[in-house]
Amino acid sequence: MGTLEELVINVRISIANPSAPSESMFGPGIAKLCDGVRELGSLNAAAKSMGMAYSKAWRIIKDTESTLDIQLLDRDGAHGSQLTEEGNRLLDVYQSISQQLQEDGEALYHKELGTNG
């Protein structure tokens, strides 16, 4: 059997619109999809890199945009897609908070265990 010290913390956050009727949120999956669009220049390429069908990626983007009431992507047909200014800001904030919470969670876990991690 393993020990508690061998386990790892995995902190996940989501950003939601409290006034939206839908429960869609900006979480790890859509953040990864948006990061792929940022890096690869298209939703199709981002979806493929995640092993996801383009139609599913499109549906996730549309549902999240509708729920959050912001446009995440600018689409240019055959020329690809890019994140909007708001999409970039949301992704940057999400990634920054996620990284900080992950680091804090790991430190707190090891502190509570009494280890140096």
From TrEMBL:
Pfam families xrefs: HTH_1
Annotated SUPFAM superfamilies: Winged helix' DNA-binding domain
MF term (GO), any: DNA-binding transcription factor activity
Segments forming domain HTH lysR-type: 37-87
Gene3D superfamilies the UniProt entry points to: Winged helix-like DNA-binding domain superfamily/Winged helix DNA-binding domain
Protein's recorded name: LysR family transcriptional regulator
High-level lineage: Bacteria, Bacillati, Actinomycetota, Coriobacteriia, Coriobacteriales
